[in-house]
């Protein structure tokens, strides 16, 4: 089964087992529906299913509780845990849209020359950025917009970009 990263447990909240979530999806209401299943990742490839008991917002932060974990002492060990959704449980994205997790690790090419690797995707106020570790070990941000992004090929594991002076 394939999974999509949708958030991370930031910390616990109060005594009844609620957690504050760092949300990594634009579809929080859909991904974190009450009664739906999410997966906590342990280690490199072990995923454990958790059913969402309750969802609410407090001061702009998403709070969740999980069935069977209605006590702070039960949920405390999961602070910092990444939360995933099964890819089969979510609607497919439109053409030209990508999950951040799918872009991480892709190789960046300009004029058929390897320039670096995507280490993370960062959200900006108007558009997202690819944080690249270049072949000469620098970190740079490339706007994820058509002016700079020529092609994304997930199967080939590469992104072809247009460069301008000073970009890399």
Notes on the protein architecture:
- The structure is a single chain.
- With 168 residues, the chain is mainly beta.
- The protein is built from 3 helices and 12 strands, in the order ββαβββαβαββββββ.
- A 6-stranded antiparallel barrel has the order 1-2-5-4-3-6. Strands 10-9-8-7-12-11 form a 6-stranded mixed beta sheet.
- A hairpin with a 4-residue loop joins β11 (149-153) and β12.
- The longest helix is centred in the N-terminal third of the chain and has 4 residues, at 28-31.
- The radius of gyration is 18 Å and the shape is elongated.
- The mean pLDDT is 91.
- The tally of strands reads 12
Q: Taking all residues together, what is the mean pLDDT?
A: 91
Beta content: over 45%
Main β-sheet, spatial strand arrangement: 1-2-5-4-3-6
Oligomer: single chain
Classify the helix fraction into a percent range.
Answer: under 10%
Summarize this structure briefly.
With 168 residues, the protein is mainly β.
SSE inventory with pairings:
Elements: E1 3-13, E2 18-23, H1 28-31, E3 37-42, E4 46-58, E5 61-66, H2 72-75, E6 82-86, H3 100-103, E7 107-110, E8 113-122, E9 129-134, E10 139-143, E11 149-153, E12 158-161
Parallel strand pairs: 7-12
Antiparallel strand pairs: 1-2, 1-6, 2-5, 3-4, 3-6, 4-5, 7-8, 8-9, 9-10, 11-12
């Amino acid at each position: 089964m394939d999974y999509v990263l949708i958030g991370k447990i930031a910390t616990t909240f109060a005594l009844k087992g609620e957690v504050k979530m760092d949300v990594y999806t634009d579809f929080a209401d859909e991904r974190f529906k009450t009664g739906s299943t999410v997966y906590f990742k342990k280690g490199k490839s072990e995923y454990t299913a958790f059913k969402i008991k309750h969802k609410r917002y407090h001061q702009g932060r998403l709070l969740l509780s999980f069935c069977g974990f209605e006590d702070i002492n039960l949920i405390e060990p999961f602070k910092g845990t990444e939360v995933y959704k099964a890819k089969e449980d979510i609607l497919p994205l439109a053409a030209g849209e990508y999950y951040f997790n799918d872009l991480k690790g892709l190789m960046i090419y300009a004029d058929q020359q390897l320039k670096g690797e995507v280490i993370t995707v960062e959200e900006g106020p108007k558009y997202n950025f690819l944080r690249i570790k270049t072949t000469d070990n620098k970190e740079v941000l490339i706007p994820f917009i058509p002016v700079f992004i020529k092609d994304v090929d997930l199967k080939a594991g590469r992104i072809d970009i247009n460069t301008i002076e000073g970009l890399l």
